[in-house]
Amino acid sequence: MLGRTLREVSAALKQGQITPTELCQKCLSLIKKTKFLNAYITVSEEVALKQAEESEKRYKKGHSLGDLDGIPIAVKDNFSTSGIETTCASNMLKGYVPPYNATVVQKLLDQGAVLMGKTNLDEFAMGSGSTDGVFGPVKNPWSYSKQYREKTKHKAHGENEDSNWLITGGSSGGSAAAVATFTCFAALGSDTGGSTRNPAAHCGVVGFKPSYGLVSRHGLIPLVNSMDVPGILTRCVDDAAIVLGMLAGHDPKDSTTVQDPVKPFTLPSLTDVSKLCIGIPKEYLTPELSSEVQSLWSKAANLFESEGAKVIEVSLPHTSYSIVCYHVLCTSEVASNMARFDGLEYGHRCDIDVSTEAMYAATRREGFNDVVRGRILSGNFFLLKENYENYFIKAQKVRRLIANDFVNVFNSGVDVLLTPTTLREAVPYQEFIKEDNRTRSAQDDIFTQAVNMAGLPAVSVPVALSNQGLPVGLQFIGRAFHDQQLLTVAKWFEKQVQFPVTQLQELMDDCSSVFEIEKLASVNFC
Amino acid sequence: MAAPMLRGCCLARRGALACIDGGSRHGRGAAIGCRSSGKRGRSSVAQQPLITAQKSGKGEHAWAAVVGLEIHAQISSNSKLFSGSQVQFAAPPNSLVSFFDASLPGTLPVLNRRCVEAAVMTGLALKCHINKKSLFDRKHYFYADLPAGYQITQQRLPIAVNGSLEYSVCVGKKRSQVITRTARIKQIQLEQDSGKSLHDELRSQTLIDLNRAGVGLLEVVLEPDMSCGEEAATAVRELQLILQALGTSQANMAEGQLRVDANISVHHPGEPLGVRTEVKNLNSARFLARAIDSEIERQINELENGREILNETRSFDCKLGFMPEPNLPPLLLYDTASLPPGADPQQVINIDRIREQLPELPSETREQLVQQYGMLPEHSFTILNEVGLLEFFQNVIKETRAEPKKVTSWILNNFLGFLKQQNLAVNESPVTPSALAELLNLLDRKAISSSAAKQVFEELWRSKGKTPSQIVSEKQLELMQDGEALNQVCLAVMEEHPQVVLAMKRGNPRAINKLIGLVRKATLSRADPTVIKEILEKKLSS
């Protein structure tokens, strides 16, 4: 049952094949079994069981709230949850229990969703590995999959197996791992430079970043206000569309959300792609791109072409400036956004009380990790009066050029862009930490962060397993507020590639029920 | 006065005070542009050293001062600029704090429509250009009472620019000439107020009250077009009256709803401007002029003693970083021509509609008083400057048949004089507008003499609740209407004082006044002096 998609399990609930409480308990038990993955910071077991119970009552009365009623979900620990600790994986917010729900959380709860817990991340979502949080790194469940183990059997022998585990990508690695291990049916991530799409690609799930302004940010603890969006992680595109339908629309508490009402929708099943024009940005073919990902990318392009779509090479000429521009804008906003953490109103406060200034300094020294402090420092440098014109203003101008690149491409008739999500599949933790956070972020966000600068919708869809048996994702980028069209294309593609399900039997041998309906789907794509 | 110099300004200031002495026998009337005018006389303390400074300087080398102002007016609104918390003065500490005000992570600003309308209305009243697109910025600084670590303000593109504020000062030999001055308004911007820090030195603690944090402010930036404390105070007073007339701010300085920062420099006329310093948080009308003049004096003393003026705030300023506020889209305003068709009236603000709602401004009210009641311009200033006095005046006018000029004179001389003596505000007066109107009616129909009227007025002050008519009959203050009886009294007085009669017959013109006085005394001031004079003259010439 747990291996099903959200839509399937929703149907099962409606038909009474399973009750919300049973479903919730199964997920809770799986969360316990996968605890070593470190996907969750907080498991809200009591709250979840209570919510499931209420959902069950509704089902019994025949008053189900809809597709999400009784569905276990998880939320990244940088969304404010009323009465549930919200840490951002930082000492600064350890023990902070918000008095209010983020709008997206409230909307999910209003639909009857059952909140399983808060998922792990890089501290304040600053990172691309989910390795830099105060609660430790998240382990990629594929590290323990049959597919990966079989391929690396000979290599792993003799080595300490536990040191060989892979990163999930990030920063929403906890949410991606939670969805990938069937402990929930959908999870909220956040996406500022690729933080939802990157771990989705590494964990073999769908990671969707909506258009900026389509989904409320109220209650999302900000990284970069002008780029942050709540992200959606699910096991298939249809599920992402269901969740988006529940979340999208104007929020009076977020002035940057769209004014027009958005209705929930069902994705049509495309049968004909011949009217589609798919753009392949030539600048995304970088030397760092692994040959395997590159080959999957071109196979995907060929697939569209063979089905009658028009596939053309396009140019996004300012792509190479994107990362450095992102760095300036991101750190500047970080410096500003982090200024509120002074130990006064909430969060960590040091013991030093000789003066307010000394208290600030020590509180922030103790509360933030090196990555956060480093970004604050850079940001304050860029915001200095004497530097403002040279860095921040310039970066804003470059941002406009990058956004215009996309506008021009879409104006030329392209419907959707097809790109890789990541340079390669997930790497082992030991490998990953050889470079620092800043370097990794700059490398790993390369295909994803320009989308955030332009405010466009984008989705990473798992395509196939690499030679190592690890998932590879490809990214589709759509026009602003054409999220539905984007997901429709992604859904068609998903259907063609038939990505295989993780096989975690070895890992959780007593959870055979999870996988009873699964079969190793033929990868007819390759 | 085209090039305002300190010397001239001091004269003008004394003029402003003298002007009141000329216009009011009590000499305690309100100085133009001054709220607590009774205390204004003390500000001459501040001008004293300025003159000394001038004397000690090279006499022919006068100093000119340049004063610019940044005025923060709390917007009169039910809720804060970006949150739904209530705005209320003197509420229990931290009782009016929303999650946003306390900068809880994840909260976002939502702009209060009322505050925008207040800014537009104020901009229109101050003849500003209203920007149809304005932007919000973050201004960063680490203060304990600024919970987010930044203030949301309008640095780059404020809501209103390029306006002007007209205010008036008295000049001329008799100080009865009202001259209008203009201070240019650089901009009006919307911004958040901060919370309050209370420092407990004993326990070395800082206590924070966030009730005020996030209250909407209008920052009005006046170009350095003023030249002394008095001019600045007068300009601030005029702005205060305008804000109060508009209802966009209660502008009560005592409650911190109007706070003034002044930037000040001195230079020799014809030479470049000097280094400026800032005097911050002037939150009392009383100290405003004095603090500015003291700073001018300090600067002159420094320079005359060969020292430099240092700007302490400037070096600090350059560290403060600005950044666009990413959580607020550009603030768009419309006029009737640009209004998008089918726009939700709740979602758009129409500048033309606000212009239609502009109430009468203080300058127009004063003009009206001069036109309608033949009031002297300087008196119209006094009437408006005293809180509640205009309403009092209008209520008296409504209920009395007396000449408006008489009403004005009674209110400015007697009524205001009494208030000042007892240090009372208009709304604390024991004399109601109706009582004064009735008194003036008695006077108007010659039922009492004007000296009796003053007696009644004093009595009104003492015995609350009595009507003027009651007092008149109790004290038998009615004018003697019986001509024969008065004739008899006159005769009796003449017989009792033959020497005075003799002196008068010898041509001493003052003797008749003495007789009039004696007759009045004998009638307990109930006789009309002009009638007495007529009778006496007739008798003496016969």
Structure summary:
The complex is a heterodimer of chains A (526) and B (542). Chain A has 526 residues and is α/β, with parallel strands linked by helices. In chain A, 39% of the residues lie in helices and 12% in strands.
What does this structure look like?
The complex is a heterodimer of chains A (526) and B (542). With 526 residues, chain A is α/β, with parallel strands linked by helices. Chain A is built from 18 helices and 11 strands. An 11-stranded mixed β-sheet of chain A has the order 1-3-2-4-6-5-10-11-9-7-8, sandwiched between helices. With 542 residues, chain B is of the alpha+beta class. Chain B is 41% helix and 17% strand. Chain B has helices spanning 6-23, 44-56, 113-125, 229-246, 285-304, 312-317, 351-356, 362-373, 377-385, 389-399, 404-422, 433-444, 450-462, 468-474, 483-496, 498-505, 511-522, 529-541; strands at 64-74, 129-130, 133-134, 137-140, 150-153, 160-171, 177-192, 196-200, 205-209, 216-226, 258-267, 277-282, 322-324, 331-332. The chains are: A alpha/beta (526), B alpha+beta (542). Chains A and B meet through helix 10, helix 11 and helix 13 of A and loops of B. Chain B: It catalyses: L-glutamyl-tRNA(Gln) + L-glutamine + ATP + H2O = L-glutaminyl-tRNA(Gln) + L-glutamate + ADP + phosphate + H(+); L-aspartyl-tRNA(Asn) + L-glutamine + ATP + H2O = L-asparaginyl-tRNA(Asn) + L-glutamate + ADP + phosphate + 2 H(+). Chain B: Residues 391-540 form the Asn/Gln amidotransferase domain. Chain B: Keywords: ATP-binding, Ligase, Mitochondrion, Nucleotide-binding, Protein biosynthesis, Transit peptide. Chain B: Its EC number is 6.3.5.-.
